Amino acid sequence: MLLGENKNRKTARSSFAGKAADKIKSANKKRAALGVAAIAVAAAAAVSIGASASLGQSVSGSADILQLSGFEYDKDDYKASSLMAENDNLVRTKVITAKSGNPDEQSTEVAEKPPVVSLNEKSITFKKLKESFVLVPSFSKEDAETKYKWTSADDKIAKVDKNGKVTPVKNGTVKITCTEENSGAKAECTVTVKTVLVKGIRLNPSSVTMNLKESKTIKSKITNDDAANKTLKWSSSDEKVVKVNNKGKITSVAAGTANVTCAATDGSGVKRTVKVTVNNVVALKELQLNYIDIQFCGLGCVEQLSVMSYLPEEATDTSVTWASTNENVAVVDQNGNVYPVDNGVCDIVATANDGSKVKASCPVTVSGVVNYVPVEPNYNVVIPQNININETANSIVEEADKYVGWLPYVWGGTDLTSGVDCSGFVCAIYEKFGINLWGIRTDLIYAGREVSLEEARAGDIIVYHGHVAIYDGNGGKIHAPTEGYMVTHDYGIGNYRSIRRVIE
């Protein structure tokens, strides 16, 4: 603060020096002691310094008032240092040099304390990783505009966001610093993360054997439920053999052996390893059969299932084993041939032989097995009295219907008086109408021309896989079904391969 004007440098110096000497003598000591505080404020005359004050008078700076209580004098350079009581806002001593002119005028400069940042907590301890704590800063200058920046000395132990929210990461100790960017003032909080560590890990299975292009999952479990950080890290010793994701799913890449390791991430050092062996085999992943479903109406028909497609295409072994879920309904041989047995529903299942356990199934429905007449052991054919086999009926259907219930199925049979098989029955009936089909008996799929079911007429030939029958014109068939039964008339046709028209 400027209290007067400088007039004459020489006069000010001598006047000030004289008063200083008188002041010292009256106190009977060369150096006056400061009574209460230890901070000195300079008071001297100097042309180049801005503010001045009178010795013995009060020096005013802003709202702060200092009272000179003592000083020391150096006659060689005409300087005096004033020793003064400390005011709350003063932090250092400033030399004041006398100015020329009025000896009662001096220049003074008073510095304030630097601003201070403080936090609501100086230290925090976390015992759980899911906890968090918000640090709240305060600034010594209440009216000042503030802008805070938060930093962590190690984000791997604890993180802090822009709002002062502290989140633990793993065990350890770290400093969180809050900086007021306008002033540069800082405050720190010591954060300690001290949680329960993982004590053990269990893996299942303990070893794995797999084929090429195959995936499996290793299940993991931490033995102590109170572990704070249950995040596990998976790794493979050789990713050219097997890869693993963060959930323990392993995928084979090439034949060989590698170790898959599951490790705790909480700094406990706990880990477990599984040995993985990859065989030089590409296993099946998917099978698709040639039939979506099979429907049998009556006995005697046969349908052949096969693997129509599979994945991956480079699978090493594509063979399958066939089985029926209910052999009282239908049976299957190892070539995939399905035979109806009795009314009901079952599945025919194909299981891969390569150890992959891949399966495909086809539902089978058998119906219409109602009026089948079984053939007794050592049965001798007896022609009913009302049947004249020497006369030909008016139509193929009428002729075929004459043999229902008494003519037995005989493998390879062609005689309408002793027994027939399915194709022998059809050829023998047609022969009675002057049509010779014996040359294509086993290939009746080539007889005549194909017609649709909507176009089918009585007397047309229905061709199945491994079976044939005569269409009755009403959605049924007449045929020699299978060994152990007589010729029968079924009121349904089930799955068929083709319908052939020989007689136009």
Quick overview of this protein structure:
The protein has 3 helices and 39 strands.
What does this structure look like?
By secondary structure, this protein is mainly beta. The protein is built from three helices and 39 strands. The strands form twelve sheets. A six-stranded antiparallel β-sheet has the order 34-39-35-36-37-38. Strands 1-4-3-2 form a four-stranded antiparallel β-sheet. The radius of gyration is 55 Å and the shape is rod-shaped. It starts with 8 loop residues before the first helix and ends with a strand. Residues 1-18 and 23-96 have low confidence and may be disordered.
Task: Label this structure with key terms.
mainly beta; rod-shaped; four-stranded antiparallel sheet; single chain; 504 residues; six-stranded antiparallel sheet; 39 strands; disordered N terminus
Major sheet: arrangement of strands: 34-39-35-36-37-38
Our estimate of the beta-strand percent is: 35-45%
Low-confidence residue ranges: 1-18, 23-96
Number of helices: 3
Can you summarize the main beta sheet?
6 strands, antiparallel
Mean pLDDT: 82
Outline type: rod-shaped
Q: Give the end-to-end Cα distance, rounded to a whole number of Å.
A: 131 Å
Taking all Cα atoms into account, the compactness measure Rg is: 55 Å
Give helix % range.
Answer: under 10%
Structural class of the helix and strand makeup?
mainly beta
Count all strands and give the number: 39
